[in-house]
Amino acid sequence: MKILISACLIGTNCKYNGGNNRNEKVMQFIEGHDVIPICPEVMGGLPTPRVPAEIVCGTVVNREGRSVDREYRRGAQKALEIAVREQPDLIVLQSRSPSCGAKQRYDGTFSGTLISGRGVTAELLVQHGFHVVDVEDL
Ligand code: SF4
């Protein structure tokens, strides 16, 4: 099986704070499969570490108030191109990220409040007919 996956879930230090979200359940699940890691935020040109961002009224803005929408959209587009090219059997994404979140994201107030909704990469993938799975539902 070919699995497209958020790179931070398999231990890549691409998270905004320079760390990762390595998940042992994921590591066991992907064993023996063809794994394609992606980090849309890095692919969009953002550094690691970086200032955390949330979606505010449809635009991605970082905690300092700077728009990073272009970088997030660019990363989403690159992720989509990889998905179209690779045609994965399964896409597993990190929860709650403004890029990868597949069912929830923060509400744009930087207060830790969650709402239903997807990050920009997850949304773009779904718009193009891909089924995305939140890692918590794996
Ligand atoms: S953009 Fe996705 S892959 Fe990259 S650190 Fe955030 S959740 Fe992980």
Structural class of the helix and strand makeup?
A: alpha/beta
Counting structural domains, the number is: 1
List low-pLDDT spans: none
Number of strands: 8
- The average pLDDT value, as a whole number, equals 98
Approximate shape: globular
Helix content: 25-40%
| N→C terminal distance | 15 Å
Radius of gyration: 14 Å
List ligands, each type once.
Answer: iron/sulfur cluster
Total number of helical segments? 4
Beta-strand portion reads: 15-25%
Main sheet specs: 4 strands, parallel
Widest sheet: strand ordering: 2-1-5-8
* H/E element order: EHEHEEHEEEHE
Can you walk through the features of this model?
With 138 residues, the chain is α/β, with parallel strands linked by helices. The protein has one domain. Helix content is 27%, strand content 22%. It contains 4 helices and 8 strands; from the N terminus they run βαβαββαβββαβ. Strands 2-1-5-8 form a 4-stranded parallel beta sheet, covered by helices on one side. A two-stranded antiparallel sheet has the order 3-4. Strand 6 and strand 7 form a beta hairpin. The longest helix has 18 residues. The chain is globular and about 45 Å long. The protein starts with a strand and ends with a strand. The model has no long low-confidence stretch (mean pLDDT 98). The site of iron/sulfur cluster has 12 residues, from helix 2. The site of iron/sulfur cluster (SF4) has 12 residues, from helix 2.
